[in-house]
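Field reference: "sequence" (input) and "structure" (output). Example, Class I SAM-dependent methyltransferase:
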Amino acid sequence: MTPTLVRHHSHTETSTRMAPSPGDRARDWAEIQERMLAPLYEAVYARLEVGSGTRLLSLGCGSGLALLIAAARGARVTGVDTDPERLALARTRLPAGPDGDADPPAGRPRLLEGDPSTARPSDGTPYDLITAFTPVGCSSDDGEGLVAALRSTVPLAARGGTVVLTGWGPPERCATAPVLRVAERLCGRGRAPRTGAWRPSGRDDLEELAFRAGLHPDGSGRVACPFGYADTDSAVRGLLSTRLFDAAVRATDRDRVEKEVAQALRPHRRRDGTIWMPNVFRYLVCTT
């Protein structure tokens, strides 16, 4: 699936726009950025033959696109996330029904906020697939949180169940890598703590996380996920919605980050004003 280039009207020019609210950023994620990973979701579901017999738990489900695709294939889906704004958007896409999120009618999506341990199956039937589609290995501290989440949710899976971890591919195969290095540079030593700053993915990052979480790697794959945007403003808004630039904003200010990201996007701007960046993402299939 190729990302659709959609033009989003900016509130004002990037250089003078006020910092967006959490709700604005969640909408930027849902409307601009999230679709860029749709080929990854589709490839994983096709490989694992996700369908009507699948009971899926999504860690960091965000605004719910991956859950929506799985549900369309017939899977029974549960999503958990700590971002209330993204979850609010997920609930508009995947209404749980009149009984609420904790115990919706049989087969309806469950969308839960907070610690992954809250995702215990309401009917006691274990999950057979757990996904972590937020790419790991991009910052100095994202692995710790994922390992903790996996340790609390793997016991909810069936014995021999499947867990999927995802990450960025090699930097040389990700055109977005130089743009993300803006965050790394702005969080340089002596200016701000590097916690949360972007860094290139290591070749064995996913395997190391799997072993730490007590999982057994059982195959992997790579998927092309090009990032395509209608214009520079949409690209800046989409990229900043990923949270990969949050530490850079704290280290400097949003206006500077936006300007430097826009500058870094120039080599990827085509004659019609659109932005196009080919990328490769990697996934690791594990068993519990």
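The longest strand covers residues 157-168.
The domain at 22-174+201-242+277-287 is CATH 3.40.50.150 (Rossmann fold).
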